[in-house]
Amino acid sequence: MTLRLSTAGIHQQGLSALLRQQSNVARAQLELTTQQKLINGADDPSGMANAKRLEHALSTLEQQDKDSALVEHRLRTQEQALTDVGTQLDRARQLTVQAGNGALSDADRASIAGELRQIKEAITAIGNRDDGTGNRLFAGSRDGVSPFVVDANGGVSYIGDDGRNQVEVAPGLRVGDTDPGSDLFLRIRTGDGLSRTTAGAGNTGSGVIGSGAVTNTATWAGRSLTVHFTAPDAYELRDDAGGVVASGPYVAGASINAAGIQMTLSGAPAAGDTFTIAKAPTQDVFATIDTLAAALDAPAITAAEKATRQNAIQAALGDISSAQDHFLSARSDTGTRLAALDDAKDGRGAYGLGLETMLSNLRDVDPTEAASRLALQSTALEAAQRTLIKVQQMSIFDLL
Length: 400
Known about the structure:
This is Flagellar hook-associated protein FlgL. It comes from Luteimonas flava. The protein is α+β, with helices and mostly antiparallel strands. It is built from 8 helices and 14 strands. The strands form 5 sheets. The protein has a 5-stranded antiparallel beta sheet. A 3-stranded antiparallel beta sheet has the order 7-12-11.
């Protein structure tokens, strides 16, 4: 059987071949220009879908990198703020020790009270610091408001909230943003952090607290225990229900040890005076300073008034020490979060490198292979063009 091809059919086959070769050359040129082999979804639907997923993962990493940088800046700003608070409290403690000097005059103590109030103002300003972008550090999730507001009487109130943003800084890892001011400046344990010893507000003697502490937490069990002076030289230790758990003679400077607590008193208490040791309550740092300043401003002429002032100074020393420990602990926690951000940065780098390698294998062109293919396809295109020209020139009349 003889196969016959029409002239038009031969021309059409040649033209189709020529167009295919032109398409191949154009494709190779486009791959070399864009350096990508996944240009259209139809090229490799599965590969294109995987490439889009990898691109999304890399975009997420890029956003996490920006979020991490912002959180790191805010945490470093918080760390500096807490350091500055610590410096102010160091000075407050020095002034408190100085105020306990019996040789000071009332004017000297008034001067110390004035400096303490300046310290309170400085700490308030620190509590209202922003991160340089207008957002407050310590307002919780209400970072657009100044969290600490001073009223006409000098009292400080908090108008932020207890929120703290958890920011994703790496796949599966979230790090807390700056702490709310309520945690840092308001909820501070007083005394030694576990217990606090106070003198009764109605005391009429000159008894002064030397120290008070819990020696056995199991025996103490968090109870409020009060030393009641039944006479100037005798006491009863009563629990919060009024039951007597211990009693004995009072000797100035001697320790009272009973029910898991130890208390040392000096001076001359009067019958009816009380001294209580109880679970340490929380108190804001502003009230701690205000209470001390008010005690230093109050006149102290009688022995009882001087004892009241001395007891306030002793209580303030413990409260300020606890506040210093509180802010040191907050600084330590801030440092832990900063270390987590450093680790997250390394993790993002390694993970991102792996994603980029996978994406490159899917999408990127091997320049050497693509250039070689372009050269080969260009040669094939040229051959197709020459062949088509030859076919077009053929005619049966050439054989006559």
